[in-house]
Design goal:
- The structure is a single chain.
- The chain has a domain of about 70 residues: Tetratricopeptide repeat domain (Serine Threonine Protein Phosphatase 5, Tetratricopeptide repeat, Alpha Horseshoe).
- Helix content is about 80%, strand content about 0%.
- Helix 4 packs antiparallel against helix 5, helix 7 packs parallel to helix 9 and helix 14 runs antiparallel to helix 15.
- This is TPR repeat-containing protein 08.
């Protein structure tokens, strides 16, 4: 069991599972082994198999708070956030000072858009575990969504203080800085995120977008191509590459990349919006209209969302991104 946990800490999940299986073979009611095996499976992106193991852990110890909490993480991965919240509440019932359960409950509430309630849970997590970097990181996300940008940065900074190699926190701080119009500072934070986790693909997407806004197109495309090497099926990177190619006037190439994005993520509205913009540039207006209609189908409040974003960016004097959104909105309104 100890060897398995060592592998788990080293992120050698397959080796960890093999060791947990040996432990379970000798003791089929070994609660801790099922729980740890579930965690390893979760980290391998196998939430359904993980849940089976957490259920076995709970079967042999019905008050095992950690198993309920870990099962909640799996449910969140499966986008079952309401069920995840119920599991977190069960974990808290058996372990009232369980910081991680409050943090996970807050994360699911945040995904459901209940940011105020999410922050209450992050604050409780911080109360019980003041050095928990995830709680500050998640609180930063909630604050960002509520428009408290400076407060979000402060929480990302605390998360980084307690975990100096926290790539997601550098990434999110970079996003926040970009929102404030501090583009070069944002890129530096994206680079730190990449330094600590070169396979965190979101970073390449957002770095690419900011580079394209700064008209550093070849660097933007290079950023996209690196991400494609890591995961050729990652839809968002083709979306970003398509946007950059559009800005370069390479409209046909842009459409080709956006088609790949649509293949991997067919219900993402902005794939169709960007494809429509490229088709307008190619003079293919009826096809453009079809794509704009699909964008609105998948995101009925798209125009209102963009208008609200433009208003917020203008208030922050971030005219670079505001102008980019405004141009897209004008084309959408004119040709849809």
């Amino acid at each position: 069991m100890q060897i398995g946990n060592s592998f788990l800490k080293l992120k050698k999940y397959q080796e960890a599972i093999e060791n947990f299986n040996i432990a379970i073979k000798y003791d089929p009611s070994y609660t801790l082994a099922y729980n740890s095996k579930g965690m390893a499976l979760n980290n391998l992106g196998k939430p359904k198999e993980a849940i089976e193991n957490f259920n076995l852990a709970i079967k042999y110890d019905s008050s095992f708070a950690e198993a309920y909490n870990n099962k909640a993480v799996s449910y969140r991965e499966l986008e079952k956030n309401k069920e995840a919240i119920i599991l977190c509440n069960t974990a808290i019932k058996y372990k009232p000072n369980f910081a991680e359960a409050y943090n996970n409950k807050g994360a699911s509430l945040g995904i459901l858009g209940q940011y105020e309630e999410a922050m209450e849970n992050f604050d409780i997590a911080i109360k019980y575990e003041p050095t928990n970097p995830e709680a500050y990181y998640n609180k930063g996300i909630a604050l960002m969504n509520l428009g408290y940008i400076q407060n979000a940065i402060e929480n990302y900074d605390i998360a980084i203080k307690y975990r100096p190699n926290y790539s997601e926190a550098y990434h999110n701080k970079g996003l926040t800085l970009a929102f404030l119009g501090q583009m070069q500072n944002a890129i530096e934070h994206f680079d730190l995120a990449i330094k600590y986790d070169p396979s965190y693909l979101k970073t390449y997407c957002n770095k690419g977008y900011i580079l394209s806004l700064l008209k550093r197109y070849s660097e933007a495309i290079e950023s996209c191509n690196i991400a494609i090497k890591y995961d050729p099926n990652y839809a968002d990177i083709y979306y970003n590459k398509g946007m950059t190619l559009e800005k370069l006037g390479k409209h046909q190439e842009a459409v080709e990349n956006l088609d790949i994005a649509i293949k991997y993520k067919p219900n993402f509205a902005e794939n169709y919006l960007e494809k429509g913009i490229s088709l307008v540039s190619l003079g293919q207006y009826s096809k453009a209209k079809e794509n704009f209609n699909l964008a609105i189908k998948y995101m009925p409040n798209l125009i209102a969302e963009y208008e609200a974003t433009i208003k917020k960016l203008t208030e922050l004097e971030n005219f670079t991104i505001a102008k980019d959104y405004e141009q897209k909105l004008q084309i959408l309104k004119k040709y849809s």
